[in-house]
Design goal:
This protein is an alpha/beta fold. It has 17 helices and ten strands. It has one domain: TIM Barrel, CATH 3.20.20. It is globular, with a radius of gyration of 20 Å. It binds 6-chloro-9H-purine (ES4) and zinc ion (ZN). 6-chloro-9H-purine binds next to helix 5.
């Protein structure tokens, strides 16, 4: 039998501890955190910019959607499904993630998925979020782009009206599919561009550098969309890819990007450009590749003076830990102070892809909260 103890003992220094499922964690998120800081985090008005909607598909909803769509799942129950969420790197994670999203077929499925995430986020005082989705995977199954985008859009409207959470949508290119497939997805999405705020780049980076998407980014920009890109940690050629994204493609934001701290030159360029980073410590919290001492990403990026925001990435596959739990763990592992947390929250509102007046209004809600608890 594999227990937590034997699993931990079997891990070598080179493996990625940050990717373990919840049952492998030693402690609950708030354990050891000053109760006053727990209260502060829960009440803090927050943003979230690095959350894959398909990565918020909880096992319970997977079963419900499979039933509604007449699909059989190869798991006896929710517990068995969750127990199968075992991965040790990006490709092994992605295999589970792509398999899981096959239950999403109809407009209502996308509505239910997005509304559930927005309700959860709103319950944790996220007041504004920009969410990723991976349409190429859905198009492959014969789902229409309209069903995907309009299901999510209807959920966004309802969540704003009923729960007060504001949101926008970022279309991600699945980088390990062909450039043609990504362009076809962009073309299919452009008739709905008023429902999108940007495009991004996700999935397996190995062999799929950002320049593969130069034409896609240019077309997206010409259509008024912002551009972001995943630079997952410890990827082959990570500094080269960060440089391409930052300098050549001039992306507006970088998702993860933790290895940048290994290049003072790139750090200086990012600071000069005022770049924001969407860091997900659950998945990409530690640098390990080719170094003797692991490096804590959030701490080292903050110490380097970079503009860090924090997000939950794929919470349904990461022990169902949403933003409050992620921040609580970040407090312990990255030694975050109340001032660090306030700065991270402020970065979140400043990074919003919103008109200046809207940003100012959201920031005012944060400042009012900070003044009220000072
Ligand atoms: C992802 Cl964390 C991460 N990295 C790359 N692609 C992804 N898709 C969903 N989560
Ligand atoms: Zn991601």
């Amino acid at each position: 039998m594999i227990t937590r103890r034997t699993l931990m003992a079997g891990l070598t220094a080179a493996t990625t501890l940050a990717m373990l499922p919840r049952w492998a964690y030693a402690a609950a998120p708030a354990e050891g955190v000053d109760p006053a800081l727990v209260t502060f985090i829960k009440g803090l008005p927050k943003t979230e910019y690095h959350v894959h909607l398909e990565g918020t598909l909880e096992a319970e909803m997977k079963f419900a959607l499979a039933k509604r769509n007449g699909l059989n799942l190869p798991f006896a129950d929710v517990a068995a499904m969750k127990a199968s969420y075992q991965y040790h790197d990006l490709p092994s994670f992605l295999a589970i993630y792509y398999d899981g999203m096959k239950v999403l077929l109809r407009e209502q499925d996308f509505y239910d998925l997005a509304y559930a995430y927005l309700a959860k986020a709103a319950s944790q005082n996220v007041i504004y979020t920009e969410m990723f989705f991976d349409p190429q995977e859905h198009l492959k199954r014969g789902v229409a782009m309209e069903a995907v985008i309009m299901g999510i859009t209807r959920a966004r409207r309802d969540a704003e009206a009923k729960l007060g959470i504001r949101s926008q949508l970022i279309l991600c290119f699945v980088r390990d599919l062909t450039a043609e497939s990504a362009m076809a997805a962009l073309d299919a999405a452009l008739p709905f561009k008023q429902h999108l705020v940007g495009v991004g780049l996700d999935s397996d980076e190995a062999g799929h550098p950002p320049e593969k998407f130069a034409a896609h980014f240019a077309k997206a920009r010409a259509n008024g969309l912002h551009v972001t890109a995943h630079c997952d940690v410890d990827q082959v050629d990570t500094l080269k890819n960060i440089r391409t994204a930052l300098v050549d493609l001039k992306v507006d934001r970088i998702d993860h990007g933790g290895n940048i701290v290994q290049s003072p030159e790139l750090v200086a360029i990012a600071k000069q450009r005022g770049m924001y980073f969407t860091v997900c410590p659950t998945f990409s919290g530690t640098l390990r590749r080719g170094i003797a001492q692991p490096v804590d990403v959030v701490r080292s990026m903050l110490d380097a003076g970079l503009k860090v925001t924090i997000s939950s990435d794929d919470p349904a596959y990461m022990a169902s830990e949403y933003i409050n739990e992620v921040l609580l763990r970040a407090v312990s592992r990255s030694k975050l102070t109340r001032a660090d947390l306030a700065g991270i929250a402020r970065n979140g509102f400043e990074a919003a892809w919103l008109p200046a007046a809207d940003k100012t209004a959201l920031l005012a809600r944060l400042e009012a909260y900070l003044a009220s608890v000072a």
